[in-house]
Every structure is written in structure tokens, then in C-alpha cells.
Write a structure and sequence with these properties.
The structure is a single chain. About 55% of the residues lie in helices and about 0% in strands. The chain has about 270 residues and is mainly alpha-helical. It has 2 domains: about 130 residues, no CATH class; about 130 residues, no CATH class. Helix 3 packs across helix 4, helix 6 packs across helix 7 and helix 7 runs antiparallel to helix 8. The N terminus is likely disordered.
Length: about 270
Amino acid sequence: MQDYADIVDEQRADQRCRSTFENEEGAVTGPNEAVRSELERLLDTDDTRTGDVYRHRHLTPEEIAHQLGVRTSGFVANNMATIRAVLEGALPRGATIRGQVATRVRALAKGPDVTDSTRQYLSDLERRLMANTNNGLDAAGPQRALTGRQPTAASKEHLTVGHDAPAARSISLRDAVDEALRRRVRVLVERIDKETSVARPLDYWRVVAADRPLDALVTLLRAPAERGTFEELRRVRRLDLSLEAAVVAWAADLPFQSDLVDEARARKDWYS
């Protein structure tokens, strides 16, 4: 069988994946033959989405999504990032995805049947992944979350602050987005309280209460709490009520940057 990277490349299915990687530390440091063989076995028996993608690695992302019953294929790129990091030592570009890959690498290292040499390799890989994470807020921080484009005519009603007043005041695009997010996240929290058993989602409420809801939203999406509302919604199978799902939907009329929307979509798809 051909190496999975060759197959994906031939099918032109890894364009997004290949653009995700960079080599910041010189030559990529991958595992030796014995460790790689063990890692391939671990991935082949892994019961997470990463294992699912690895076992279907000969297919295109769209075919993988179809086989796994997922509507979109965005989750494939993140899981391929994990596979490449584990088997080749390739580091993904971007703090957010590095943090996600590091989490999966850490989980693999904790397996009961992992040998000392493989655990050491995975621990070293995790340290490399986390070395330049910068809290997930480096070049794509909150201040860059807006595209700078003006809202469409169809969305102006939603971005009007004080539209119920006799004369709505004129405000900046950023202020309008902040106010729209405050209203929408409040409604989302109320739906979570009404439709699920998830306890009061305090991390989502912090977005509502923040002086700058957009900054708070970006920070939460890129550095989520380990046991936050997203994890609770995943537990009850209601990721449709997650902020990640909301950001994807709201991008239709809120001028989010595409990388923020892509990250939100990828995280939701990964855990769906």
C-alpha cells in the first residue's frame, strides 16, 4: 500500500493540510522505525476521530466524511495534522491547531500499552508543539477577528444598536458587532438553559458580560476551558448549541475573519 501522504497528495485532497504545516526548527524530527511502527499500531486501534481518519487515510476528505456520517469534511484536516505530527514530527502552523494536536498527542502518550521509548517521543513532540503556542492568541488575536468589510444591506438591521429607539445612534462597525454578539450569545445561553441539562454556562455568560464581547469570544474559542460549556454540550450531543456552531452560522452576516470561522468549524466537526 502506498504511504497515506502520497495517496492524499495524488488525489489533491490534502491542499488545506499541506498549507497548514511549516518547518520552524530545521529538519523535521520524526520517530525511528521501531517507534513509528508502534505509533501506527496505536493510531490503527485509536477509538477517536483521529483513529477514524487514520483507518480511512486512503480516501479523500469528502469520502472520509461520508464514510463516518459527517456532513462536512473540515475535521479531516485537523486529524491529518495530528497524524502527520505523530508519524513524521511535522508541526502545524498556528497556535490553535498546535494546541489541539498537542492534546491528542498527550492522550496517546497516556495509553496503557505505550512503551517508554514511544512515550518519550510523544512527550518531546508535545513540548515542541506547545513551545510557540503563545496562549493561542498570537498573530490571529481578537484585534484581527473582523475582516474590515462592511455588513451587507440584509444584515444592517441586526447590526443596528438601539434600533428600537426613536432615532438609532450611529456607531462603528466594531461596536455594532460587539452589541450584536452580546444579544446573540445571551439568546444562545437561554437556549442552552432551556433545551439541555448543561449547568449554567458561565464561560458563555462572560462573553455577554464583557466590555468587548468579540474579544471575549475569540479568547474563549482559541483557549477553551478544559471542562467548559463546549465539553458539556459535546457530552449531551448538542454541539449545535456551541459557540463554534454559532460563529459559523453568524458569519453569514457578521464580518468575522475567515480563519476564526474555519477554526470554529473544524473544532465542531472534529468532535461531532
